[in-house]
Design brief:
The protein is 71% helix and 0% strand. With 215 residues, the protein is mainly alpha-helical. It has one domain. Helix 1 runs parallel beside helix 5 (84-97). The mean pLDDT is 89.
Length: 215
């Protein structure tokens, strides 16, 4: 099997793992379609809004784990291919965002990006989580942190490893992540986007944007 075939299998493996959607499954168990409720985002943030903090945390952890597993499994299958783990992780992000089973209507990639960082190095995940938290606190919007980290993370990887081809591949998801967040930026401009302070001022935030919790 040549390098191109190995790389393609890594991407496919990652895509298949990434396209598994715990937020959609939890929604179905609760009797609603996450793609048609709340923000319409099939990810942890919308599950948090619709079901609660514990469900949102569960979805986030599962999304992190599936991306990390995609990296680890791809790297184990093709140890001679330096890009194997990276391609598996990137494939998982794309699978999460554009799952074929859900007609390409998935999440926005933050948790899966965290899983890719975890698979690379847990200490780096802690550092980058602190940076993401700082950005979120300064702006009061998670969406700003997500888009920022999609660029900061590849740069961090490149500086840490000097493997700039890998950094370039890790940067590819930044484009769809930015495009998927354009709607968030429009809502921020209109004053309709939930702020990070939703976590401790839920009722006030929902009232501010006129959101109904009914599914």
């Amino acid at each position: 099997m040549n390098t191109i075939e190995q790389g393609a299998l890594c991407l496919l493996l990652g895509y298949c793992l990434g396209s598994l959607s715990p937020s959609f499954l939890i929604g179905k168990l609760r009797g609603y379609d996450v793609r048609k409720s709340g923000s319409g985002n099939a990810g942890a943030s919308n599950t948090l809004i619709l079901v609660g903090k514990m469900a949102g945390l569960t979805v986030a952890l599962l999304d992190i784990l599936k991306a990390a597993c995609a990296w680890w499994i791809a790297a184990a299958l093709f140890p001679a291919l330096r890009l194997a783990g990276i391609l598996g992780g990137v494939g998982a992000i794309f699978g999460h965002m554009f799952p074929v089973w859900l007609r390409f209507h998935g999440g926005k990639g933050l948790a899966c990006m965290g899983g890719v960082i975890l698979a690379y190095d847990w200490k780096s995940l802690m550092i980058l989580l602190l940076i993401a938290l700082l950005i979120s606190l300064l702006t009061n919007y998670v969406s700003v942190a997500t888009v920022s980290m999609s660029v900061i993370w590849p740069a961090y990887y490149g500086l840490s490893t000097a493997f700039w081809l890998g950094a370039a591949v890790l940067l590819i998801p930044a484009v769809p992540i930015f495009l998927r967040h354009l709607i968030n930026f429009r809502r921020i401009r209109r004053g309709e986007e939930l702020r990070l302070s939703y976590l401790w001022k839920k009722d006030a935030e929902l009232a501010r944007i006129g959101y109904s919790e009914e599914l």
